[in-house]
Amino acid sequence: MVVQQELTSAEVDLLFHALADATRRDIVQRVIDEEQSVSTLARAYEVSFAAIQKHVAVLERARLVTKRRRGREQIVHGEIDTLSRAERLLQQYLELWQQRAGRMDALLREDEGRDPAPSAGPTPVTRKDTP
């Protein structure tokens, strides 16, 4: 199986770099629930307004959020499409590793003289299994 990326390698790097920070993940969560101004976001954290602006800029470069002006405010909106593409990428990696685990299991069974192709194989991880 080859992982088919909808995102370029550079986009994947930006995306996971952006999501590697807890504050940025929290900002994404908040603006997906409801778009908010940068000022409103800044009041929710114990860091400076400038720090929140920088976090939003990182998220914007990764296309996890978009900003638009409403008067003097900058309104931040979450981009579900980018998260969906990241989810599909991670799902492909998960399926790749499940296939590899299944092949290793079959080889081990064969070495042990058991049927190399068990009926069930490794239990696939589903969305219900993830927190």
From TrEMBL:
InterPro entries: ArsR-like_HTH, HTH_ArsR_DNA-bd_dom, WH-like_DNA-bd_sf, WH_DNA-bd_sf. Residues 4-101 form the HTH arsR-type domain. Residues 107-131 are annotated as: Disordered. Pfam families: HTH_20. The lineage of its organism: Bacteria, Bacillati, Actinomycetota, Actinomycetes, Micrococcales. This is Metalloregulator ArsR/SmtB family transcription factor. It comes from the Bacteria.
